[in-house]
């Protein structure tokens, strides 16, 4: 997979050179290009924003630097396939594990995180003629920009690429991978500050342990995320 991450603060993406995502790049499973948007602003101050047309507070990101940067990405695109342009925005569809799993199948993802009050809307319309455009939100709260959302989405997506995390089996048992929250985990010592590991986990009975873990997932999901629990029940009504 190739990823292009465009921003006026590309330093945010240096964290992706760490740990498993960094190793995946070194192993050739992944290529992440960081692009400085200001390299596509050619006035003396390399301006990327301007006042909102129609008035209002703050500043809006100018369209031209984005179009020039995205055209360079397209020019360097090796395959005939249209790259997927992900615009992180609080007004987008919610990014979920299902979205991460779908996007992990794509060969080329381009991220265009805005700052200020957002990017001139015409960039989205222009890009839709050249990319598959997805406007995605990581949740309902206020951020100063989309760069941290890019880091969240890149980690969630790229960890699903075969070979990126050593233990592929663990993927199947994680929160949201099967629609349920994950079960509680324990390790040694069996007794810690007066607290014991659940007996069943010491039984060696793998069937009992699996059943206990499944029940823990269901209880935790029902208590903490009734929305997920209702969806899970709907999808598993035949099992009940
Ligand atoms: N404020 C805010 C909230 C969610 C979100 N997702 C992608 S960019 C963004 C910005």
TrEMBL record:
GO terms assigned for molecular function: tRNA (guanine(37)-N1)-methyltransferase activity
Keyword set, alphabetical order: Cytoplasm, Methyltransferase, S-adenosyl-L-methionine, Transferase, tRNA processing
Domain tRNA methyltransferase TRMD/TRM10-type: 1-230
S-adenosyl-L-methionine among keywords: yes
Reaction(s) this enzyme catalyzes, per UniProt: guanosine(37) in tRNA + S-adenosyl-L-methionine = N(1)-methylguanosine(37) in tRNA + S-adenosyl-L-homocysteine + H(+)
GO biological process: methylation
Entry EC no(s): 2.1.1.228
Residues reported to bind S-adenosyl-L-methionine: 114, 138-143
Cell location: Cytoplasm
Subunit field text: Homodimer.
Family: Belongs to the RNA methyltransferase TrmD family.
Summary of the function given for this chain in its UniProt record: Specifically methylates guanosine-37 in various tRNAs.
HAMAP family per record: TrmD
Name this polypeptide is given: tRNA (guanine-N(1)-)-methyltransferase
Organism: Nesterenkonia flava
């Amino acid at each position: 997979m190739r990823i292009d991450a465009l921003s006026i603060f590309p330093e945010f993406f240096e964290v992706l050179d760490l740990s498993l995502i960094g190793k995946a790049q070194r192993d050739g499973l992944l290529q992440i290009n960081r692009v400085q948007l200001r390299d596509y602003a050619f006035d003396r101050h390399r301006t990327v924003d301007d006042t909102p047309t129609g008035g209002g507070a703050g500043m809006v990101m100018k369209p031209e630097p984005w179009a020039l940067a995205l055209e360079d990405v397209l020019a360097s695109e090796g395959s005939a396939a249209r790259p997927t342009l992900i615009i992180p925005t609080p007004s987008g569809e919610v990014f979920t594990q299902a979205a991460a799993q779908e996007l992990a199948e794509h060969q080329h993802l381009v991220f265009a995180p805005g700052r200020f009050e957002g990017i001139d809307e015409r960039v989205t319309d222009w890009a839709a003629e050249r990319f598959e455009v997805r406007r995605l939100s990581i949740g309902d709260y206020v951020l100063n920009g989309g760069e941290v959302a890019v880091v969240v989405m890149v980690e969630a997506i790229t960890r699903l690429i075969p070979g990126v995390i050593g233990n592929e089996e663990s993927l199947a048992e994680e929160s949201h991978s099967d629609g349920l929250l994950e079960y509680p985990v324990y390790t040694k010592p069996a007794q810690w500050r007066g607290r014991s590991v659940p007996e069943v986990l010491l039984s060696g009975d793998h069937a009992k342990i699996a059943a206990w873990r499944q029940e823990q997932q269901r209880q935790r999901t029902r208590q903490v995320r009734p929305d997920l629990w209702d969806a899970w029940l709907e999808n598993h009504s035949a099992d009940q």
